[in-house]
Each structure stands twice: as structure tokens, then as C-alpha cells.
Amino acid sequence: MTILRLALVFHLDSEMASPLNKTLRIEHLPVSLDLPTLDVASTVNSERSGIFNGDVIDGLRRMGGWRFDLIIADPPYNLGKDFGNDSDKRTRTKFEGWTRNWIGALTSVSSETASLYICSDWKCSGLIESAMADAGWTILNRITWKREKGRGAARNWKQNMEDIWFAVRDPKHYVFNIEAVKVEKKVIAPYRQDGKPKDWIQTPAGERIRKTHPSNIWTDLTVPFWSMPENTEHPTQKPERLIERIILASSNQGDRVLDLFSGSGTTSVVAHRLGRRFCGVDMNPDYVRLGLARLKREGYECE
Ligand SMILES: C[S@@+](CC[C@H](N)C(=O)[O-])C[C@H]1O[C@@H](n2cnc3c(N)ncnc32)[C@H](O)[C@@H]1O
To answer: Counting Cβ atoms within 10 Å, is residue 175 exposed (0-12), middle (13-18) or buried (19+)?
Structure first.
């Protein structure tokens, strides 16, 4: 046990000391005394982008009249994680009531053609699905993301997945840019028609590939880790590539993306990079600062 602990300490020390460690840390950020909030008195409006410090339900109330084309919400899963507050440590009943509350408030800030994605783990997945359906959203899919993180459990199966529910306001009118998210697949049986490749191409390296429609099981995305420039101190940061796939598929340039429970700002950062407008909300001021620092790195100055 002692050897194990020593090995862990050594591993953490060398990880922190390594010049390859790109983690953005809160202690390195400038302290801003007046972080942007969604205060009624402020001049914010839905045309401007930004990450705001505040409570999601309160924020949604203050956004009256704003209309977002895409909403991506990555809420606490009630697993007891430390987000610098008690938001992940509710009783089951309180968590259910609160979840239904904020999901119920989303229709008032969504456009008629809006799409909604909500992340969950297996424990709260059922609740999220029923709250979305009860709030009037048409659920079109459940994406399962296979994510490798953490050690296994001794007396249970290792937790290795997250669900992302995908719903729309109007199943007849919504954006889905399939060409932007097609994936390359190795062709096992390279059929030919009249001697020519049928639906596949040969790369310069000689590989036979086909661009196919992505499925609802995502196995090609790792969680951010310490040597990746996108990594921050946030304990449950989503990978940029995962968010990128969602934004590319379900929005167009210039659209408005709502980043609820923005944490380290992943959705806002990717939305900006892809030419969308964005509005992030998180109650932890340090996470808002992380998000603003990431945006600054992208050349974006929040007003
Ligand atoms: C799962 S994390 C989001 C991580 C984020 N997607 C990222 O990539 O960094 C959930 C976040 O919700 C925030 N949070 C929890 N309750 C909140 C509330 N009522 N209002 C605003 N933010 C809240 C926490 O501070 C935490 O950063």
C-alpha cells in the first residue's frame, strides 16, 4: 500500500513538474473582481457573446426574450464532485426537482428550430430523458460516449460511459449538417462497379476508406489530459472534439449557442472557434475565469 502511495505521489509530482504539462491552472489567472454577470442592469443582450458568472435558473430567467439555436448543457450528475460548491451533492429528491426546473425553463430561450443536447451519466440518464420529454422536446437520439477515465472498481463494473441526449423543438425543422460530421471508415470489402471503387476512395498512403454517417456510439474521443493544451484544472472538463462534433452537426455559422454549466468554457471556446455566437453560464467564478482565459487564448476579448 505504501509503495502504491509513493508511486502515486511520484507520478503526480513528475506530471506537475513536466514541461509537457499544459494544464491551465486557476492560480495562474489574473484575479478579476467584476466578472460578467447576467444582471438585469447590465447591457448584455443575446447578440453579444460571453461567459457569465451566476446561477443557471436565475440566468435563464434573466435571458427573457433571448433565443438560442443550440443549447448544450453539461450539468452536475449528483455524484458528490467538488465544483467549489454543493451543486453535486443534493438529495435524490432535490436533484430531481432541480433538474426538472432548469430543463423546464429551456423552451423559453430556444428558437423554433433549436436543438438541445444534455449530458448525463447512467444514474441520471433516465431522469434527463423524461424531463426533456415532459418539457416538450422531441428526443431524437441518445449518444453514448465511451470515455476512458479512472481506475476500475473492485466490486463493480468500471464506469466507462456518458450519455448525451439529443432533442429538437420541432422534428420537422431543425439543423443537421451530416456532411460536416461524417467519419472515415476503413473499407473491409472494397466493392467495385464497372471496375471503379463503389463508395470508397484510396488514400495516397494506399488505405481504402469511406466517409460514413456517424453512429450514436462515440468511441474515438478521450477526456482531456495534462499534456493537452485544452486541459484545465476543472474536474469534469469535456473534450473539445466532442463538443465540436455537436456544434458542427447542429448549428450554422453565426448561430447562437447556449453553454449551460459552462465549467472551463469548452462549449463557448469551440463555438467561438467555429464562428458561432455563445453564452456560457457557471456559478463558480474560478471556472468562469478559466473559460475567459481560454477564450483570450483564441483571440476573443469578452467585453
Ligand atoms: C460537469 S461541469 C461542466 C464542465 C464543462 N462542460 C467543461 O467542459 O468544463 C458542471 C458545472 O456546473 C456548474 N454548476 C453547478 N450548479 C450550477 C448552477 N446552479 N448554476 C450555474 N452553474 C452551476 C459547476 O460549477 C460546474 O462547473
So the answer is: middle
Span 52-102, pLDDT tens digits: 999 999 999 988 788 999 999 999 998 888 888 888 889 899 999 999 999
Atom index in ligand 1 nearest the CA of residue 232 equals: 9
Domain count along the chain: 1
Spatial neighbors of 303 by CB under 8 A, at least 6 apart, are: 36, 48, 50
Mutation choice for ligand 1 from 100, 222, 282, 292, CB with most ligand atoms inside 8 A: 282
Whether pTM > 0.85 for this model: the answer is yes
The Cα–Cα gap between 171 and 167 comes to 9
* Whether the Cβ atoms of residue 275 and residue 303 lie closer than 8 Å to each other: no
Q: What is the dihedral of CA 65, 261, 44, 109, to 10 degrees?
A: -10
- Is 261 close to ligand 1, i.e. is its CB under 6 Å away? yes
Q: How far is the CA of 196 from the centre of ligand 1 (A)?
A: 52
- Quick: pLDDT tens for 116-132: 999 999 999 999 999 99
Residue % of the chain over a pLDDT of 70: 91
Residue 189 lies in a domain: no
CATH number at residue 77: 3.40.50.150
